[in-house]
Amino acid sequence: MIEQIGCVMESVDQMVRHAVWNAGADGIVVGISGGVDSAVAAGFAARAVGPERVVGIALPSAVTPTADLEDAEAVCRHLGIEFRVMSIEPVIDAYRQYPGLTESRYVLGNLMARTRMTLLYAVANRENRLVCGTSNRTEYLVGYSTKHGDAAADIQPILHLYKTEVFEVAREMGLPARVVEKPPSAGLWTGQTDEKELGATYDEIDAALRALAEKDWVAENKVEELVLKRVRASAHKRVAPPNLLSTR
Ligand SMILES: Nc1ncnc2c1ncn2[C@@H]1O[C@H](COP(=O)(O)OP(=O)(O)OC[C@H]2O[C@@H]([n+]3cccc(C(=O)O)c3)[C@H](O)[C@@H]2O)[C@@H](O)[C@H]1O
Ligand SMILES: Nc1ncnc2c1ncn2[C@@H]1O[C@H](COP(=O)(O)OP(=O)(O)OP(=O)(O)O)[C@@H](O)[C@H]1O
Ligand SMILES: [Mg+2]
């Protein structure tokens, strides 16, 4: 796996460097949650353009555990990138002024993801940076992300990696043990975990995605059925919005 990962890193480096150079950007900004995806994505970004050109921003909400904030700082320290904190609470508070808008944790959670996106883009605008995405292949395929929220970015250094591979790369990078070992969570409400919400473990989901890709997306067991349902339902997140221009 080491050689294989080394090989992937080479091409990720080139892709990231090319994107930054092509955009005439001075650097990269990435939301650092204290989770493994943002840690690995930031690691690739730092490796590609140098840690001094990358800034990691923690964007805590009222439900963000203190431990996650500490882990976010530890990730930035480990990678040698600048660490900043920008609370999203003042913005979320403003949304609370709209009657009923923030009552559902589902709606509120997606608002949080989109609020983080707008702040990262504001920093990118101000400092001539590109926004680094943190989506992996698994969440991209099953649509486990907020459309125009955490899914929105200028570069996607880990989009080719299944979640189980992200963990392997995280260990290769020597990222803090707490970051690699914690259960993946979108952190949009207290107690949320990816595997609970998705209804299967990442080991099961990745095995199902690999199997489905090999047999032309025909499901043969319960997990494959569940995964295929999510892949189908989220197709709109992976294509341009329905329009007449692309059909003419
Ligand atoms: N067929 C279709 N064609 C075109 N557009 C369609 C559509 N169906 C829905 N839409 C649009 O998409 C919207 C629904 O998509 P979206 O707003 O994304 O919402 P949705 O996919 O329903 O929810 C997002 C999911 O991702 C999870 N998440 C979010 C953020 C971060 C993470 C993480 O892992 O960190 C996970 C979150 O917990 C939740 O399960 C609809 O309101 C509608 O506007
Ligand atoms: N509190 C936060 N501060 C900064 N960025 C955040 C925060 N919460 C979410 N994000 C951004 O949204 C992205 C999507 O969250 P997601 O949970 O999928 O990734 P992760 O937290 O890096 O890893 P994991 O999936 O293992 O929890 C994060 O990678 C990060 O860029
Ligand atoms: Mg997370």
TrEMBL record:
ATP binds at residues 31-38, 134, 163, 185. Keywords: ATP-binding, Ligase, Magnesium, Metal-binding, NAD, Nucleotide-binding. GO terms for biological process: NAD+ biosynthetic process. InterPro entries: NAD/GMP_synthase, NAD_synthase, NH(3)-dep_NAD(+)_synth, Rossmann-like_a/b/a_fold. It holds the Pfam family NAD_synthase. Homodimer. This is NH(3)-dependent NAD(+) synthetase. It comes from Methanofollis formosanus. The gene is nadE.
